[in-house]
Amino acid sequence: MLLVFWIFTKFADLVTYSLFGLEAGSRLGESVHFFFYDTTKIIFLLSIMIFFISIIRSYFPPEKTKKLLSNYRKITGHIMASLLGVVTPFCSCSSVPIFIGFVESGIPLGITFSFLITSPIVNEVALVMLYTIFGWKIGTLYLASGILVGIVGGIVIEALGMEKQVEEYVYQISAGESEVEELEWNDRIDFAKAEVKEIVSRVWKYVIIGIGIGAAIHGYAPAELLAEYAGPNNPLSVIAAVIVGIPLYSNAVGTIPIVEALMGKGVALGTALSFMMATTALSLPAMIILRKVIKPKLITVFVTVVGVSIIGVGYMFNFVM
Amino acid sequence: MKITIYGPGCKNCVNLADNAKKALTETGVEAEIVKVEDMKEIATAGIMSTPAIGIDGEVKIKGRVATVEEIKELIS
C-alpha cells in the first residue's frame, strides 16, 4: 500500500510542479498537488474496496435480511436491523420497495427505521475510506456511532407509535415471494466487478467536487478563523454543522476529502463527522422518495430524531477525542 | 413472450431495458418489453432491490443490471 501511495505522490509532483510549473510550497501549488494526489489515491482505493465489499454484500440480499429480521423483536430487533443495515446492498432508489417489503411482512416500523437510518450513514465504502484516511480509531468510532444512531432513532420512532403515519396502501399490499437466486463463486465476482463499475461511475463526480473543495480549503481557508468558530471550543459548532449538512446532498465519499481538509485546519472531529453524517443520512432527495410511503409528520419526526442523534454523536466525538 | 423491467426509472433501469432490447435484436426473439415504474406494483411482485427483470410475469434477476448474455439465456 505504501508503494502505491508513493506512486500517487510522484504522479502529483510530476503534474503539479513539472507539467504545470507551479512552485512547491506556494498556495496554488499545494492545492493543485493535494487535488491530484487525493483524486488518484481515492479512486484507486475505492475500486479495490468496492470489489471486496461487494463480495461480502452478495451474501446479504434484502430478502434474506427481511427473513432474518422477522425473527427478532424489541431491542434485539433494532440492534440486528442496524447491523444488517451496514451490510445489505442498498441504494436510495430501493428504499421504498425495502420499506414496503419490511412493513408488509410484519417487521415493526421502528425496526424498519433502524435499518433505513443506518444503511446510508454506514456506507461501507465511506467507512473503508475513513479507516485509510483517518485511521482505525476514528473509523471504528464512526461505525459504532452510525449503528447507535440507527438503534436509538428506531427505538424512538417505535415508542412514538407512528403506524398511522404510514400511507394506508402500504398495509394493503401483499408482496409476493420471489426467489433469491443461488449464486456461484463466479457470479459473486461478476457482481462485484459490476458494482465497482456502477459505483465508481456514479460517485466519481462527487469525489472530484469534494476533493476540489477540499483542495481549495487546504490551500486557502484561514486556519485560525475555522479553528475559532468550528474548533472544539465552540459548543454550537456541531449543531450548526448538522443544520448546514441536512439540505446538502452528497455521497459520503465526496464529503470525506472536505472533512479531511477542514480537520487539517483545526475543525473539531465531532463537528466534521456530524456534518458528514447529516449530508448522507438526511437529504432532500431521500425524503422525497420516502414521502411516497410515509406522511409528512413521520418525515419530520424522522429528520428530528436522526438530526438530534447525530448532534449527540458529534458532541460525543468532540468529548472523546 | 413478455419481458418486464421493474424499477422506478433510475439510470440502472434504463440500462437494463437497453440490454433487454439488445438481447431481443441479437436473438431475433419476438417479445414485448413492459416497464413497471410504480412502487406498489414493484413491491407486490416481491422485489426489494431494483432494477429487476421478469419473463412472462416471473421475476428472474433482481438487484442488478442483468447482462445481454444473461437475458439471452432467459429468453431462449
**Poorly predicted runs of chain B:** none
How many discrete structural domains of chain B?
A: 1
Which structural category fits the helices and strands of chain A? mainly alpha
Biggest interface: chains and residue counts?
A-B, 30 and 22 residues
- What's the CATH architecture name of chain B? 3-Layer(aba) Sandwich
Supply database-style keywords:
heterodimer; A: 321 residues; mainly alpha; B: 76 residues; alpha+beta; Glutaredoxin; 4-stranded mixed sheet; 3 helices; 4 strands; 25% strand; DUF318 (chain A); transmembrane helix (chain A); membrane (chain A); cell membrane (chain A)
Could you describe the 3D structure shown?
Chain B: Disulfide bonds join 10-13. Chain B: The active site is at residues 10, 13. Chain B: Residues 1-75 form the Thioredoxin-like fold domain. The complex is a heterodimer of chains A (321) and B (76). Chain A has 321 residues and is mainly α. Chain A has helices spanning 2-19, 27-57, 62-69, 74-87, 95-104, 109-121, 124-134, 136-159, 168-172, 185-220, 223-230, 237-245, 252-264, 269-281, 284-290, 296-320. Chain B is of the alpha+beta class and 76 residues long. Chain B has one domain (2-75): Glutaredoxin. Helix content of chain B is 41%, strand content 25%. Chain B has a 4-stranded mixed sheet. In chain B, a hairpin with a 2-residue loop joins β3 and β4 (58-62). Chain B is globular, with a radius of gyration of 11 Å. The interface between A and B is medium-sized, with 30 and 22 residues.
